[in-house]
Amino acid sequence: MKRKVGKRKKRGVVLKLLLGAFVIYSAVNLVKISIDVREKQETLAALNESVERQTVENETMKSAIQKGMTQDEVEKISRDKLDLASPNERVFINIDG
Length: 97
Hints:
Strand content: under 5%
Distance between the termini: 88 Å
Number of helices: 2
Radius of gyration: 33 Å
Shape: rod-shaped
């Protein structure tokens, strides 16, 4: 009978160790997942803000197209956003920085 009691104690200790390891593993994974969720929420917020800014810019451009643009506005957009130059225009680039 003593052998059975000894085996049961050993089994109980092993089960407790396994249960403890599982609890620690679960806790670590829970922390990792919560950190990942927080990072993804921050990324989502940044992307939503970017989408909102782009939507506003698109609406501005749509209204400009609908009301028509002057030649000066077309040239300004061409220079600023598209880095274009007029024909026969000399462009100087500062290589010093």
